[in-house]
Amino acid sequence: MSTTTRRSVAIYMGSDSDLTVMAEAARILRRLDVPFELEVSSAHRTPDRTVELVRTAPDRGVRVFILGAGAAAHLAGVVAAHTTLPVLGVPLSGTDLQGLDALLSTVQMPAGIPVGTLAIGKAGAANAAWLAAAILALDDDDLGARLRAERASMAAKVEAKSAAAKDRLTGLLGD
Ligand code: RP5
Questions:
Q1: Helix 122-136 crosses helix 19-31 at what angle (to 10 degrees)?
Q2: Is the dihedral of CA 138, 141, 142, 144 positive or negative?
């Protein structure tokens, strides 16, 4: 790969029906100014395309994979089988089992082929992005500083909500 290519994250999902949830990962990466590519590719319906994307990803600068899939979710496992880069799986709800099927498919990988599995749905997609950024920040001090600033901002919001809750309680109790 070119030394000028920025290190990036690949967000792949098994179906376009997964996009609304997986957009949460893209939203966080954009906020952190982390480049990403986004593709729809299925482990079952387009297995060759999936493998080709993974094999060529390092040349495009990809250093971490985020995979979202529902039902009998094999996308993260298949990607992990074809790369030694970090692979993060997001189980998605799309069947009567409401994501439990995808969670078990994604998390129960055989020893040696790891998939870091996040929560089902939007929280998992967002946390996959936060975790991917943390991985890239291991040797990117500017990104690390942006992550610390985001944490400080979250903490400030909680403190503001705590103060507001005390005010609301006073009103609720009629003091
Ligand atoms: C999975 O099957 C996809 O990731 C999606 O969550 C689910 C249903 O796909 P569609 O039938 O909506 O294309 O492979």
A1: 30
A2: positive
Query: What Cα–Cα distance (Å) separates residue 136 from each residue in 9, 95, 163?
Result: 9, 33, 35
Confidence of residue 5 (pLDDT cuts 50, 70, 90): confident
- Write down the pTM of the prediction: 0.94
Q: What spacing in Å lies between the alpha carbon of 101 and ligand 1's midpoint?
A: 12
pLDDT at 3 over 70: no
| CA 120–ligand 1 middle distance (angstroms) | 14
Residue pair 107/85 in contact by the 8 Å Cβ criterion: no
Q: Is 50 in the pocket of ligand 1 (CB under 6 A)?
A: no
The pLDDT mean for the chain works out to 96
For residue 34, give every residue at least 6 positions away whose Cβ sits within 8 Å of its Cβ, in sequence order, or none. 8, 9, 129, 132, 133, 136, 143
